[in-house]
Amino acid sequence: MHRTHTCGELRATDIAKKVTLAGWLQTSRDLGGMTFIDLRDRYGITQLVFNMETDAALCEQARRLGREFVLKVTGTVAERYNKNAQMPTGDVEIIVESLTILNEAKTPPFTIDDNTDGGDDLRMRYRYLDLRRNPVRESLMLRHKIAKATRAYLDGLDFIEVETPVLIKSTPEGARDFVVPSRMNPGQFYALPQSPQTFKQLLMVSGFDRYYQIVKCFRDEDLRADRQPEFTQIDCEMSFIEQEDILNTFEGLTRSLFKDVLGVDMPSVPRMEYADAMKYYGSDKPDTRFEMKFVELNDVVKGQGFPVFDNAELVVGICAKGAAEYTRKQIDELTDYVKRPQIGATGMVYARVNADGIKSSVDKFYNEEQLKRWAEAFGAEQGDLILILAGGADKTRKALNELRLELGTRLGLRPKDKFSALWVIDFPLLENNEEDGRWYAMHHPFTSPKPEDVAHLEAGGLGKVRANAYDLVINGVEIGGGSIRIHDKDLQAKMFGILGFTPEEAQAQFGFLLNAFEFGAPPHGGLAFGFDRLCSLFGGVDSIRDFIAFPKNNAGRDVMIDAPSVIDEKQLKELAIKLAN
Amino acid sequence: MHRTHTCGELRATDIAKKVTLAGWLQTSRDLGGMTFIDLRDRYGITQLVFNMETDAALCEQARRLGREFVLKVTGTVAERYNKNAQMPTGDVEIIVESLTILNEAKTPPFTIDDNTDGGDDLRMRYRYLDLRRNPVRESLMLRHKIAKATRAYLDGLDFIEVETPVLIKSTPEGARDFVVPSRMNPGQFYALPQSPQTFKQLLMVSGFDRYYQIVKCFRDEDLRADRQPEFTQIDCEMSFIEQEDILNTFEGLTRSLFKDVLGVDMPSVPRMEYADAMKYYGSDKPDTRFEMKFVELNDVVKGQGFPVFDNAELVVGICAKGAAEYTRKQIDELTDYVKRPQIGATGMVYARVNADGIKSSVDKFYNEEQLKRWAEAFGAEQGDLILILAGGADKTRKALNELRLELGTRLGLRPKDKFSALWVIDFPLLENNEEDGRWYAMHHPFTSPKPEDVAHLEAGGLGKVRANAYDLVINGVEIGGGSIRIHDKDLQAKMFGILGFTPEEAQAQFGFLLNAFEFGAPPHGGLAFGFDRLCSLFGGVDSIRDFIAFPKNNAGRDVMIDAPSVIDEKQLKELAIKLAN
């Protein structure tokens, strides 16, 4: 071992001990007679002292060391003259007696510091240097801690971690697969799993009863910001359970993670029906850190001659507490915000509830009395600001959701260290595709309808059928979701019929699972948490990148190792494939 | 929840409780007035009783249930008349009051029993049914237990589990990569990792200090029995350490796993130099559950006119304790064994140490006096059997290794529940390829030579240079191995030169790692354990297959899901590839 202690370990109680430390040169200060070096490793920083009077040669050597040199020093722990209460090792320093340069270092292309001067591209190219920075390393240590706490919780409940295969079969349904040509089976391909869904269901058929896995999944999608082609899930499945059992088990996991990892006591997680989430928040993943619920105003505002409202399918608004003082400029910014093409509102109506009455942007159409009725509808008080959108119902709700979030951010209602969790339940089972008029499974074709809604599984009623499907939403982010699965083969056959599969097509695509279901499938269900996203939520960071050791960029490239890359003609030949051009 | 208790839970103390159980029908016995059903789940088996007198309709229903039906029953726990001490629940049975068929089951294609009548192919095709059998499920639960104990041990030593990427870059060195065409980067490919080797070294450059990961790796090799295209490693790396620290850390892990998982106290693990392993066992992974060391006999047997020995480069033998009573037939079997083409010995000489003297198969050439010198060389005693092979040194050692193992098996010296571990150390750094005359890294090009051997890193001395490389061998199986890495760039450059790389070639293949090493690489090293193999060793089973939930066959196929498979023309087009024919 090249050290007796780490750089984060020594305290006043160690004074006078002879120690050996190893680490990287963080900073060096040359004060003429003395040279101070901060030596860094994963565990902390310790100050080294070199004295011209005691050992001029050694001190000279120390002066020539550059940033990020790898050093091994032996010396004596001494009390520090200028103690540093900010550092755990701040009471001591090492009077160095011998110094070995374990390795030299070129000057890094950016500073290895909490606030670095390196841009994103540079940091990605030199990821191994970026990983030296405290915030990045701490993000990955947090990830480790969350994984560990997850395993401890699930192990404690008799879940078994089972590794499912990575080289599986491609299915044309759903998102695009990454595929792997098989050399031993020319012309054939494996696919990388988008999730272990079918395997975990098979494990339930096998009687494993409680399965989990922290597992890499793959999706060949066009990468939006902060989506990675490979990502990690906490994947779970349970047998002989009902929806209530799943919700309780994973609410337990979530609360235990918050407690163990962050020391946060999370209250029991409320539940909201999908229909209510859409009605009151215009989103199936509402940020419930703040209230500001939607209020529908059709009954209140129509028929007063304001054509925008009169012609709208839905008039709906929110009330921002204490925001009546917003300037015209601030309100114009919000109007511009909702009029951006991504959001697409045509305009915004506002009303300030002032001490001297309510002032709206449509005073021409609504008198004081009528505006009072608006305020009543919102329960608005003096000092509040009412913002209203109007138009087609779905589109307007979506736009108002964006406005609500933007306003929440501006009003400081979405702090990173406040956590508000929510189960969104009773998702629709099916959604109709406007383009081809077909019905698609909102979750996947194995999701169970709610028993009381099975009767509606007929033409005309399909849109009303709710699923035993649920999402866990924290701070407006979908952390995970799942469903109770269909285990009855007649119901499954009916579902495939509704989804437009012939029995032969169903067999071709999902044959092995359908066959398995013939041999005694237990009632089962499960869920998956997005692990990268969960980590970034815990870390209070929007981007998942720093919670992944070696992430890829938006073009799916690892710019550090320069992958993907061209491969040998010989490799292609062995795999029996050719480049298209 | 469809149950109040599991099928492995109820005891005499639960008598008179009203309970609900759910599980699979294991067996059913109809005794006329009564019907008994064994209900099975992951946790055990509980006996259900249906009585014609009490509830004829229910009993009739129970009689019609088939094997593997999924049932939910409610009833009262009663004392069992015929107690079964073999079963944890054997003191009780359930007097069933209500029965729900949760799912029906077709008759399985093989019996779900510890000793099944299903052949390998059938079991693989219906893996989800095979996984219902106790031995297979227990193998996977053992795997989970070993993974859990591994994590607990390494977490306790401040190792951080870091996930390294699965979509990486192909390197032409070493074994064949699986590759993944990139849709977003047409004509380019990712590779699946054969190991996270370079990433873990980069994490050391990043200062992670102690890394581990239980991780899937991939190798597109022709599959010998019991090799899988995807396999799992316990992968580790440490900084600021020397070889001794790695050996001690992972010996600690190994002994702790034996203790925690099997309750076995493993003594401290002896070390053997590679040269000695080859000299005394003819193998770099000797099975040390039994002694039977090689004895070299050139000095003892040559010059007596027996041309086979006189012309041999090496005459070497083993002494099987107490095997002098082997019949001529048994000895002929051994001779046939070593003469098989895979082993390739041309013959075998034997000598029995009997009460009335030593009888050899070459008495024509060696008299009693000379044979006594043979026995002395082996330390052979009355009742022992000496077996000798002769020929080229390497080939003869290899053949004698096979003979020793075969004899050990026949003599019952290799019981599955006895464990003998060994560190094989001081591997050669380089090996010369006879075909092209080039030197290749025995481990990989980043393995460090022993400091005292660096002086030999010149033409003529290359074969003598030993590496800081080590393997952990248990019961003759290589469980894992690793090395101290080169962290000095000059030494690394020299190594690449020896391996025949130009600096440009080295840069093209390993550029990102070499560049990283310029920014302050600490001394580091590590190792990887083959996790599937470790599990099968702990399970006392030769095959790794039952320790993998969904294994592939020797053609790399998953016959259950029928993968790999052909993919759509549209998929190929998107990926910018074509089939070669």
Number of contiguous helices of chain A: 16
| Major sheet description of chain A | 8 strands, mixed
Name the biggest interface: A-B, 124 and 124 residues
Number of strands of chain A: 23
pLDDT < 50 stretches of chain A: none
Specify Rg of chain A, calculated over alpha carbons. 30 Å
Helix content of chain A: 25-40%
- The global form of chain A is globular
| Strand order, largest beta sheet of chain A | 6-9-10-22-21-20-17-11
Question: Oligomeric status of the shown chains?
Answer: homodimer
Q: Could you report the average pLDDT of chain A, rounded to the nearest whole number?
A: 94
Cα(first) to Cα(last) distance of chain A is 54 Å
Structural class of chain A: alpha+beta
Strand residue percentage of chain A = 15-25%
Summarize the structure.
With 581 residues, chain A is an alpha+beta fold. Helices cover 29% and strands 24% of the residues of chain A.
Please tell me about this protein's structure:
The structure is a homodimer of 581-residue chains. Chain A has 581 residues and is an alpha+beta fold. Helices cover 29% and strands 24% of the residues of chain A. Chain A is built from 16 helices and 23 strands. Chain A has helices at 56-63, 120-125, 127-130, 134-156, 197-205, 243-262, 274-281, 298-301, 307-310, 328-339, 368-378, 393-410, 489-498, 503-517, 531-539, 569-574; strands at residues 18-30, 34-41, 44-51, 70-79, 92-103, 160-161, 179-181, 189-191, 210-218, 230-239, 271-273, 295-296, 314-320, 349-354, 357-360, 385-391, 421-425, 430-432, 439-441, 469-474, 477-484, 524-530, 577-579. The first copy, chain A, has an 8-stranded mixed β-sheet with strand order 6-9-10-22-21-20-17-11, sandwiched between helices. In chain A, strands 1-2-3-5-4 form a 5-stranded mixed β-barrel. In chain A, α4 crosses α15. Chain A is globular. The two termini of chain A are 54 Å apart. The relative contact order of chain A is 0.10. The mean pLDDT of chain A is 94. The interface between A and B is large, with 124 and 124 residues. β23 (577-579) of chain A pairs antiparallel with β23 (577-579) of chain B.
